[in-house]
Amino acid sequence: MLQILEVVFDGTTLHPTEPLDWEIGTRVQITVEAPLPKAIVKSKSFLQTARSMQLEGPTDWSENLDQYLDGEKTL
Prior knowledge:
Layout: E1 7-9, E2 14-16, H1 46-52, H2 65-70
Antiparallel strand pairs: 1-2
């Protein structure tokens, strides 16, 4: 199966810009193309960044934000 992925290199490791639907331990063969021009490289969206942080909070956070900020409700 051929799948084209965009990845970011952090100096040591290649990180996919989107989640992969692979089982842990899946072996793949990688062909590397020269770095993409800066204009083409996509930054992570707010939701991708928020999901990657694996934050936890109350389920009614968005509905009752003001009450949490004012201290009427606690986390």
